[in-house]
Design a protein that fits this description.
Order of helices and strands: HHH
Strand content: under 5%
Helix content: over 70%
Structural class: mainly alpha
Number of domains: 1
Number of strands: 0
Distance between the termini: 60 Å
Number of helices: 3
Radius of gyration: 20 Å
Length: 123
């Protein structure tokens, strides 16, 4: 299959998927920033109220992990875009590797567990 034999829908679907990776990466980075800055807000609030507010898990470290996860997601999205585009030009498909799906699901589940545990402990 030549480059001219590519179906526009396949190419556009690959681009939409890449943009979804970028949106997800940007969301993780922004959420990480907000989490990291929240610890600064809590610290300032405790100083203004002259009260010690206990801190179980450092928001700064968790925010850094979230931002780093966003960077990894963006880089992986770029890799997937290039790999799928190359496969499409050879008239092939390239499915998501099962290991990538498992790792992605485990990372999201771990983040959800940390957030849920922190919210439950806050009660």
């Amino acid at each position: 299959m030549k480059q001219s034999d590519l179906r526009p829908t396949d190419v556009l679907a690959n681009e939409r998927t890449f943009l979804a990776y970028l949106r997800t990466a940007l969301s993780f980075i922004a959420f990480g920033f907000v989490i990291a800055r929240f610890s600064l807000f809590v610290r300032e609030l405790s100083l203004a109220a002259h009260a010690a507010i206990p801190s179980r898990v450092s928001s700064t470290e968790f925010g850094i992990v979230m931002a780093t996860a966003g960077i990894v997601i963006g880089l992986y999205g770029a890799y997937r875009y290039v790999a799928v585009n190359a496969a499409l030009s050879r008239a092939q498909t390239r499915a998501l590797a099962p290991a990538a799906a498992i790792v992605g699901s485990v990372v999201v589940a771990a983040i959800g567990i940390v957030v849920a545990f922190d919210l439950f402990a806050f009660r």
